[in-house]
Amino acid sequence: MNNIKEPILSVSNLLDIRTLPSEDISILLETAQSFKEILRRPNKKVPALRDVCIANLFFENSTRTRISFELAEKRLSADTVNFSTSGSSIKKGETLLDTVNNILAMKVDMIVIRHEQNGAPHFLSQHIDVPIINAGDGTHEHPTQGLLDAFSLKEKFGYLEGLKVAIIGDILHSRVARSNIYLLKKMGAEITVCGPPTLIPNHIQDLGVQVSYNLLETLKWCDAANFLRIQLERQNIKYVPTLREYSYLYGLDAQKYKSLLKNIVILHPGPINRGVELSSDMADSENAIILNQVENGVAMRMAVLYLLGQKIK
Ligand code: CP
């Protein structure tokens, strides 16, 4: 990139936020800002990853992350190939490692992977030597979502240090919650997690967060609230009696928002269960930055790809 100082990440893969140094997080936030400015230009494409081939391996469903990575890659002039489980030889019993080694044999330089198994990107990193980016692994971490959420908060407030952030809902199954907690704590934010007791993991306080079971108290405390999706597909037992009760206790609607007597910023990683976590008027309100998060996701993923791409050149 012209006129941009060339920072170097200390890591060669983006596997999680837990082990990512805060210096690397700062570099990623700054680099994403540069890319955001580029994305606002009529010509959004830069030649930074020309001749680099990136495989997007999505073993689990995705809309935002998959399209966001692909757009980020195209805007960096990389070549891309996309893999999804349906229609692949995974259905014939091929292992994850065999699948990835076969794709790498076709001279792929970088891997983006989403997988339903916790630790799948970490496992691959022990067996292959191209940069790996975790695009969400099971209930473990979703590092680029954590980064884009932090970027969006910093853009909105101008700072992260001392910012009061609430994370609301299904903390137990949420890789987004875990990546947000690790990242925002490293950057000096205060965090309260709030939800039904059955969806708050035991010992979550050990991560340096406060726990609340009271939505309105939490919202009155915070500057920004990140509402998480109830992950019905990961719940093999019932954690809440009904979605209606969950929504009554932990969903946000205009009436509850008005009762706060203050403005807070609303985030949601998507996909939204409208009428469950957020009423439609809240999801679409001027206090919600949900589509800004999506826009910023492309800039953040460009930053991740660009900086890790420097390691293979
Ligand atoms: N936020 C997020 O990961 O959305 P997708 O599952 O659509 O990628």
Describe this structure in words.
There is one protein chain. This protein folds into two domains: 22-141 and 297-309, Rossmann fold (3-Layer(aba) Sandwich); 143-293, Aspartate/ornithine carbamoyltransferase (Rossmann fold), CATH 3.40.50. It has 313 residues and is of the alpha/beta class. Helix 5 (143-157) crosses helix 11. It contains eleven helices and nine strands. The model has no long low-confidence stretch (mean pLDDT 95).
Short description:
With 313 residues, the chain is of the alpha/beta class. Helix content is 37%, strand content 14%. Strands 7-6-5-8-9 form a five-stranded parallel beta sheet, sandwiched between helices.
Topology:
Layout: H1 22-39, E1 53-58, H2 64-75, E2 79-84, H3 96-104, E3 110-115, H4 120-125, E4 132-137, H5 143-157, E5 164-168, H6 175-186, E6 190-194, E7 210-212, H7 215-221, E8 224-227, H8 243-250, H9 254-259, E9 265-267, H10 280-283, H11 290-309
List descriptors.
Rossmann fold, alpha/beta, four-stranded parallel sheet, single chain, 11 helices, 2 domains, 313 residues, globular, five-stranded parallel sheet, binds phosphoric acid mono(formamide)ester, 9 strands
